[in-house]
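tool_call: predict_structure(chain=1)
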Amino acid sequence: MDQSVPGPRSILLATYLASASKTDELRKLFGSSAWNTAATPSQALNVLLKFVPQTAEPSSYLSLVFDIAYSRLDDSDDSEGLADLLPDGIRLLDGDTATSVGDKLLSDGTASVDFYEGDPQLTIASWVFERIYSIDSSFGVLELIDAIVSADVSEPLPAAVLLWRDGVLRPLQLFYVSYPNAVDKELYHLREYTSTNPQLIIEHFLQYTTTKTINRDVAMIITPYLHYITTISADRIKPWNNFYEWLVITAATNFQIIIELVKNWNGPDGDSSALINYVSTIIASCYQCSEARSEYFEAMHILQKRGTYVLNLADIIPVDDDDDRFIETQMVSYSDADSAFKFPECPLYQATQSNLYLLDQLITSVAMISVYVPTSLQSIAKLRFFATHQAQLQFLLSVVRGNSKEYAYRDDSNWRTLRSGSRWLKNKSYVLSKLSDADIENAFLSALLDFGRISLVREIYIDPIQLPLEMEDIETHVLNSFRQHYDGASNCNATRGSLKTASQVLHLIYPSMLKTDKLEKAELLLKATHELSKYSLTLVQGVPLAPLQIRINNNPEQIISQLLQSNEKAYLQVDEMISITKNLVIGLDTSLDALQGIEFRVIRMCVYAALAADDFSVAYEYCMNKLWSHANEINAFDQDLLWQVFFAAGRYVSPNASSLSSSPGFQVTAQTQMMMLQLNNRIKYLRLQMELLSRALDICPERHMFEILNIWQDFELQVAQFTAK
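tool_result:
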């Protein structure tokens, strides 16, 4: 009986033997003339690929794959006994049907492999990869795949398979072991690790990394993976750039990871272009960090030095003017500051010696500034390259003045350090290059005055032979600060609190260094305000008098009027009242027209205050000895007030005057000494009042003469009666 396998049935037998893992029988079949007549090496490989169980021991079939690829199977008719292995269902098929069924079995499914004549390594690698991807699609069990690439076979696997093993499988296995709780382990099939954008794979591998694991993950997962992708990629640089982009993005949110990596990793080995791009990444990561704490700036300095080391540069050498101008030109060519700092296009990120030096300068600058105002490195770079003069000035003011009251308590040493640092920011790191020296000095003088650092102002701005600012500028700052301290004072005593500081500020230059109208007005206002502190006075009900109220009120005569009303004996200090009023008029920069007749109006108020205090003698004295002397100096309005005050004093009757009747029946029955004294005093005061009324008659309008004359005549009658009796 013929025990050979007819050609049309050989493919069906092969699939049957493969599914039963009978590799020895398969070897015999694949070497038979019946097979070689009916099938091809490619079909033999596909039988092994599709029908050998995926859980079968790889060493049992890999040697057969090698032999097929290398065409080492001998052509023979030694297939005796194989026909007995044919199931009855196959045996009964006619040739055409057997051929059709065999072809259909081999064409089912997506997995397929070709036989490359003359390139056995490519044939083997193609078969192994298809086998791996098929198992991954079916089971996704890395142990089965690892068994293939680690199989104990007499010949080594192709280099392409070994590269894949070390660059994809081993990193993936480590990822699974390191992060057993990862929720998306199976996000990608094995085939996709070589076909998907490396950026996505890198993000996948590093999504759980921390400062404790980043060095291990980069060394044992990312580096092997990118080495593999670089090897099979037409663009050898791009895969590493994907990783660098991840680093720069991460720097913005987790700079600690960047610190830990750069301190320990020297970049990819043997790839100078990728190494240069690594240095660019280090620079860019520093600029992307949003932290503003000293420990981060210290770390940035370390990274900057690591960047220099990676490039194997000598010690940092200052950049020459040409390089500096070149960077300046490149940066300002961007339409806006934000677009200028994109990675990797930003000119500052180029791995050059000048950029590393510039980075060092800007890190030093931001560390200095953040002591006072927390600021990021990128913000400082934008300030240098894109800020206008006004923007740089506003930033300087925010640094000098700070954001809270604690900055008022810096000691002189802190202020000196900040001032020298600001000059360094302008002249060395060029962060404030658009400012002039005067801009910086103006900012500091203003702040020092406002914070009351009088001795330091004197040391820096007053005592030096060569002053840092023009005297005109110093005067402006003194006056502004004087006003601020004046307005901020809680009381009017110039020996205490903010008003004392206002006095100290003013007397830094007045009168010893400079005398101007503005300074003199400030001095007079200060003097008047201090004099007012001697009296009880409120301009706002329930609120003690404060200097700001004086400025807001801006009505010196009203202030004196209220002072006289609330201080019983203040009218006795008429000269002081006049002095205070004049000083207020000048100091408050009121119209100088207000000075005309000011003495008259103050004396007039004192007369009324004396009358209110029942002090007729003082009222009479002020009228006759002070008011009358101003009669020819005052305007028409005050002239109208003049006769009125004489009239008011002339007709005044004390509420405490004794009642002495002047009726015809009046008789002095008891000529006591006390009664005679009262009578004489009454006659005396009547004559004084008549004198005042006479002056009123001299200057009053005609329409008031009759009224005044009536009172005068009444007083004259009383005097005559008292005298006659």
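agent: The two ends are 187 Å apart (CA to CA). Proceeding to next step.
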